[in-house]
Amino acid sequence: MSYFVHILLNNVVPLSLLIGLGIVLQRAFQLDIKTLSKLNFYLFSPAIMFQMLYQTELSLKVMSQVLLFFVVFFFALIGVVEIVMRVRGYKGGMRSAMRNSVIFYNSANYAIPLNQLVFVGDPFTLSIQIIIMMMQSLIPNTYGVYSVNAHRQKLKDTMKTILSMPIIYVIPIALFMRGFHIPVPHPIYISIDYIAKGFIATALTTLGVQLGSMKWELKLRDVAISNILRLCVGPLLGFLIVLAFGFQGDMAKALILSCAVPTSLSSVLLAVEFDNEPEFSSQAVFSSTVFSIFTVTFVIYLIQFVG
């Protein structure tokens, strides 16, 4: 019960308040959603990614194990989603929107506090989650951009868009500077810190603005399918892969928990930026965040029996 209340008060309620603020601002001022989307993609996301990778001590052994898990999990999840989409007969932009709502999950501002709550500030499990977060930042800015544009844009044009994404350069730069202990000039680091602190508020407000601009034609069946795949099938696949690889202890628990979090804001930002089913994407993020109160609490209870 304490986990339930803590997740509700420390994750869902603060997220919901910021989303609600975005809805109110949109209703009052008709904000430019495209400008907010670009700020997230080109300013706030790169800043927080650089800061977290630069500050965190990452073991090469742990990184290789986590990356192995992530790659297998990612493709297994895509496989499941593809089967469901074929059965449902999704076409065009809805295919990429559904896929993104399941394979992109909130590994940063939801999963990191959750990890630290469950494992009581353990730096080892935090490093695992940060590696997952790195991949969950890189893939939406590469594969995610490709998937929402593949059905309507030439490959050459899509590649230009991908190469314009700062995050694909920020990740190797941060790892290189961290690995070789290259200091960031203090004035520059202060600026990065200021920008990084604005990421969560800006991203959640953007989601609220998108929700506030919608006609609210609820896509209940599609959203329910997305939520089940993300919140139930995701952690189940994570458990099976952990079992297959023989991971044990806190690593096994942290990896399973990382698969259980709700849909990422990246799916909304991609949908808004490239005008690809933004209403469905926004509803999927919001509803999965709410329902995660129950599913994540259940996963936390179960992982104590793992490893």
From TrEMBL:
A biological-process GO annotation: transmembrane transport
GO cellular component: plasma membrane
Localisation per UniProt entry: Cell membrane
Organism superkingdom: Bacteria
InterPro entries: Mem_transp_PIN-like (IPR004776), Na+/solute_symporter_sf (IPR038770)
Keywords tagged on the record: Cell membrane, Membrane, Transmembrane, Transmembrane helix, Transport
Membrane topology according to the record: Multi-pass membrane protein
PANTHER family tied to this protein: AUXIN EFFLUX CARRIER FAMILY PROTEIN, SLR1864 PROTEIN
Family to which the UniProt record says this protein belongs: Belongs to the auxin efflux carrier (TC 2.A.69) family.
Protein name, per record: AEC family transporter
UniProt organism field: Paenibacillus hemerocallicola
